[in-house]
Amino acid sequence: MKKLVVVLGSPREGSVSTMLADEAIRGAKEAGYEVVTYDAWEMNIKGCKGCGCCRAGGIDCVIQDDMQAYWKDLHTCDALLVTAPNYYATVAGHVITFMNRHYCLTNADRTERLKPGIKFGAIFTQGAPEGFDSKYKENYDWFVGTFTSKGMELAGEIIAGGGSDLEAKKKEAYSMFSES
Ligand SMILES: Cc1cc2nc3c(=O)[nH]c(=O)nc-3n(C[C@H](O)[C@H](O)[C@H](O)COP(=O)(O)O)c2cc1C
Question: Does the domain at residues 2-8+16-40+59-174 carry the CATH identifier 3.40.50.360?
Answer without folding.
Answer: yes
